[in-house]
Amino acid sequence: MTQYTNPDLHGDSPAWLSFIWIAFLVSLSLMVLGIYFIPVDWWIKGYLYMGTLFLTASTLTLSKSLRDKHEHERLVNRVKSARTEQVLSKYEG
Length: 93
What we know:
Residues 16-68 form the YiaAB two helix domain. This protein is mainly α.
């Protein structure tokens, strides 16, 4: 019988997490600064700020939803695998 290994032990490295946070903060900061210094009327800047805010929020929501879907599928697969092993163990013994 195969030994069960815990798939939750494999996570992102601290270096990768630092990189994605730094990349996110730098890109958001540069976008905000770019909008601030662009030579247009205030209402155009407001529109661009609003677009940046909504794009950032929707990106974070999409990312979380995709991660939740992946975690749900992993859980369902683990339950199916456990049931299969339980049925197989009945017939082996």
